[in-house]
Every structure is written in structure tokens, then in C-alpha cells.
Prior knowledge:
Structural class: mainly alpha
Oligomer: single chain
Number of helices: 7
Number of strands: 0
Radius of gyration: 25 Å
Helix content: over 70%
Mean pLDDT: 81
Order of helices and strands: HHHHHHH
Strand content: under 5%
Amino acid sequence: MAVPRRSRSKQFELILESLIWKFRLIAILPVIMSLLSSLATFVLGTKEIIKSILMFNGTIGFKGYLGELLGSIVGGIDLYLIGIALLIFGYGVYELLISPIDPARLDEHLGNGLLDIRDLDQLKEKLVKVLVVALIVTAFKAMMTLPINSPTSLCFFCLSVLLLALSGWLIAGEHRIERRGTPDHDARQS
């Protein structure tokens, strides 16, 4: 008995679609690499902060030393922020392409956190927020050692501070808009 031609093509289609669906599992590679990179940046950030703590020996009066000490601490914080961005990316790619992370869904209080990513727009928004904060910290570190020896350099310094404040305000703007529409916020306003 011959298998109908339509049935064979349907079986081939099902096999091909099954293989295509399983091919998404290749996304485990960037997930693993971003999680390992996150671990590496956390270790490097910790090493940077420990180095600055060990460098601290009580000679705070020396301005260059103080700038170097604070720069080292801020550099460690910057590495932590980059590690958080890598974590968000890894979790997001896993959730979007491979499978929802069930333990994260078990605790109802953790459901709306930074690592709760349900679609590509959420992944993009959360990554942008963390990366902008990392850029703000990097700019702050650079501004700590910026020599101010003329009115022009002072104006540039003030403009930099203004731009950093504006970028922080813009990032927090979405949160303010979301809170404004909540019943709790509306009740406090009346």
C-alpha cells in the first residue's frame, strides 16, 4: 500500500519544522557566554574595589590620591553595572528563545523585577536603562579627574553635569509616568 503523496509532504513538513524549532537552542551559546562574562565583570569589579580599599592608608589630604581612590571605587561600580547588563541579556535571551525560567515565576514578589523579561521590548528597555546608568557612572569617573583651570573648562564641566542629570531624569521619567497612573498615586493626590 502506497502512502499518499500529501501525507508524505506533511510528514516532511513536520520533521523540518521540528528541526527548525529545535535550532533555537543554539541561543544557549550567547546565554552561557553572557553569564560567564557577567561573572567575570563581577570578579573584576570586586577586585577593583578591594584594590582601592587596600590602597587606602589614611593619606586623604593628597588630592591626586583621593581622585585615584574614588576613581577605582567608581570603576568597580561600573564593572558591576556592566555585569548586570550582561545578566539581563543572558536571562532575556533564554526567556525569549529557549524557555521561561520557572523558579523566577514561583515567587510572586520577584515577578516584576529587572530579570523578568516577557518580550523583546522589555529586554531592550531594561538593557538601555542599565547601560545608560553605566555610562553615567563612567562619565562621573572621568569628571573626577577633569582639570578645571579656565572658565571654558568650568563651563564644559557644568554642561557635563547638566547632561548627566538630564539623562538620569529621562531614564526615571518612564517610572514617574507609570506611578502617576496608579490608583495609589491618584488617591494621594486628592
